[in-house]
Design goal:
The complex is a heterodimer.
Chain A: H1 4-13, E1 18-22, E2 25-28, H2 29-45, E3 53-57, H3 62-73, E4 77-80, H4 87-97, E5 101-105, H5 106-112, E6 124-128, E7 146-149, H6 150-154, E8 171-177, E9 185-190, H7 191-205, E10 212-215, H8 222-234, E11 237-240, H9 247-256, E12 261-264, H10 266-273, E13 287-290, H11 297-306, E14 311-316, E15 325-326, E16 341-342, E17 346-351, E18 363-370, E19 376-377, H12 381-387, E20 388-390, E21 397-407, E22 413-418, E23 423-425, E24 428-430, H13 432-440, E25 445-455, E26 459-468, H14 476-486, E27 495-499, H15 512-517
Chain B: H1 3-17, H2 38-52, H3 63-66, H4 69-80
Helix pairs in contact in B: 1-2, 1-4
Classes of the chains: A alpha/beta, B mainly alpha.
């Protein structure tokens, strides 16, 4: 099944039902389907063809939802880019994916300057926003790519269904994720892999047409996307918020819209619990989910005490297969440190260093099997071969997650650690290498090392250690300014420490353990 | 610019904007302009509490009080007036 069919089927069954509530506006399934059709026709008229990539760099707005389905209806694959991505990286992602079109917010386009024009393949930019704020400078209408506003390109277009479609083996999206090399990797999901993951999630959450799911997570994030897709598959309502910056507003929305489901990362759970929840009527809330990073048993305990009628699903997944496990809510009190067992339609096991399967009672690397696995990393055959390795059936590939898990005698899995040094902050992945490479480009930096240090709110906080060049006058603010100009907001270090030299291990590598030991929690 | 506005503006420039050039005075929503996010709001509230020695209640952490410079100044004045 193609992903856009989730929308189309629900629009056919319940055209007038509220599919999306965003800001103060409600959108029916029929209205979203029509707007997505208009975008698809507009993209195709601009030369976008089956298999092409179209980048979408938008906050959680209605246009982000229209774009996701419109791009897929045009037979193209989505490149979902975090809206806080800065100029240089956006240019790199456009170049790497060879996207031929970009949908972006007007405010964002001004802030990214000429980045999109650095990609030779980009032919069309669609700006979401007010026409009077069309960009000036390098992105004018007389050079490629051509710039249009959403209103002029999509606004009055053809709302009829698109006849030609992608197949379910075609790429549906590239989700860029941080890699330990510092180079972002485009995780390729087909319609089939994404639909399989969506179906499994909808099954164990019991997604239903009366669902009202509240999401503050960016749609560019696998976990954010997996709020939209199961909800639309089930024909429910998605209440989409831009952020969790004002928890009181989110809680009011949750109560006012009679929300039944809410997706958290541990940072959100921590902030949620800082608020008096009794002031809000949350009686309609049926479930909470947690993913992105493991949730502390203490947070689970507090959530259970304060929202005793709510079912809580601690979960584990990674972009490469969207989701792997969930802990059934009835196990949360008994087994709060476990991430549960495998979700439906997949298998998982643990292996030793040689790839041999280990029995319960051991710790090993988690291996996942199923139709929800990515096709690989875009243009990175070696990284793909490392992650997707031969499985039990000839020709089959299974996913080596790079995460160590313990499996107990009763079949419950427990996350132990990552095998690489990727930092998890606010549920997002940050590559220390990417930040280190960036820091070394700053004048006055001789050497840099970046680690994650324990942080009560963020899980891990990004900390940078810097050795200045002799005579260089570099302070923390200059370092942070440099990072903020180039990195997504979540990847900017929270702390900077200057050292005379970086500690090294016996084989001359940076001694990250020593750096961790000298760091107080943020 | 009042002393309160200046202090808040300096804090935002130094700690939240980190070198991005944004017209703080003219911005009608820090959230929509991408200046603050969930941890940014917490940092901002901590700054207000430490600078003017009052405590911000849960129900005061709303856009009406915190989402623009004008709103922040009005909020601080209201808190200081008790």
């Amino acid at each position: 099944m193609q992903i856009e069919c989730f929308l189309e089927e629900s629009a056919r069954r319940t055209p007038d039902k509220a599919a999306l509530v965003c800001g103060g506006t409600r959108w029916t399934y029929a209205a979203i389907d029509a707007e997505a059709n208009r975008l698809a026709h507009a993209l195709m008229a601009r030369g976008v063809a089956r298999g092409d990539r179209v980048a979408v760099c938008l906050e959680n707005t209605p246009e982000a939802v229209f774009s996701i389905f419109g791009v897929l209806k045009a037979g193209a694959a989505l490149v979902l880019v975090n809206p806080t991505t800065k100029s240089e990286k956006l240019g790199a992602l456009l170049g790497d994916s060879t996207a031929c079109a970009l949908v972006i917010a007007d405010r964002k386009l001004e802030s990214v300057g000429g980045a999109p024009s650095r990609s030779d393949h980009l032919r069309t930019i669609i700006i979401v926003g007010e026409p009077q704020r069309l960009p000036t400078g390098s992105l004018t209408r007389d050079i490629a790519p051509e710039v249009f506003t959403w209103k002029e390109l999509v606004g009055t277009g053809d709302a009829a269904p698109v006849a030609e479609r992608a197949g379910d083996g075609d790429l549906a999206c590239l989700l860029y994720t941080s890699g330990s090399t510092g180079r972002p990797k485009g995780v390729m999901h087909t319609h089939r892999s994404l639909a399989t993951a969506t179906g499994s999630i909808a099954e164990y959450l019991g997604s239903a047409p009366d669902d009202v799911v509240l999401s503050v997570l960016p749609l560019s994030f696998g976990y954010g996307l997996s709020q939209l897709l199961p909800t639309f598959l089930a024909g429910g309502t998605l209440v989409l918020e831009r952020s969790f910056a004002f928890p009181q507003v989110t809680l009011q929305r949750m109560a006012g819209q009679r929300c039944t489901g809410f997706a958290m990362v541990p940072t959100i759970a921590t902030i949620l619990l800082q608020n008096d929840l009794t002031k809000f009527d949350l009686s309609s809330l049926r479930y909470l989910t947690n993913a992105g990073a493991g949730i502390a048993p203490e947070l689970l305990k507090q959530l259970r005490q304060r929202l005793p009628w709510v079912r809580i699903f601690p979960m584990y997944g990674q972009t490469e297969c969207i989701r792997v496990t969930f802990l059934p809510p009835e196990e949360v009190d008994r087994n709060p440190t476990s991430v549960g067992r495998g979700m439906p339609n997949q298998e998982m096991w643990i292996v030793d260093e040689e790839g041999r399967r280990l029995p319960p009672g051991n710790t090993g690397e988690l291996v996942v099997r199923g139709a929800h696995l990515m096709r690989g990393y875009w243009n990175l055959p070696e990284a793909t071969a490392q992650k997707l390795r031969p499985g039990p059936v000839p020709g089959e590939k299974v996913l080596f997650t790079g995460d160590l898990f313990r499996l107990d005698q009763d079949g419950w899995f427990y996350f132990v650690s990552r095998k690489d040094d990727i930092i998890k902050t606010r549920g997002e992945k940050v590559s220390p290498r990417e930040v280190e490479i960036l820091l070394c480009k700053l004048d006055g930096v001789l050497a840099a090392a970046v680690i994650g240090i324990p942080d009560a709110l963020l899980g891990q906080a990004v900390k940078a250690f810097i050795v200045r060049k002799p005579g260089a006058e570099l302070d923390e603010k200059a370092v942070l300014r440099h990072c903020a100009r180039h990195l997504e907001d979540f990847a900017v270090p929270k702390k900077v420490e200057f050292l005379e030299e970086l500690p090294k291990t016996a084989n001359a590598k940076i001694d990250r353990q020593a750096l961790l030991e000298r760091s107080e929690p943020a | 610019m009042s002393d309160i506005a200046q202090k808040i503006s300096d804090f935002i420039v130094d700690n939240l904007l980190l070198g991005r050039t944004v017209d703080i005075v003219g911005t009608s929503s820090f959230l929509e302009a991408g200046i603050i996010d969930s941890t940014g709001v917490l940092e901002l509230v901590q700054f207000l509490e430490e600078t003017w020695s009052f405590s911000v209640k849960d129900e005061e952490m709303v856009p009406e009080n915190l989402d623009s410079l004008a709103r922040l100044v009005a909020f601080v004045n209201k808190k200081l007036a008790g």
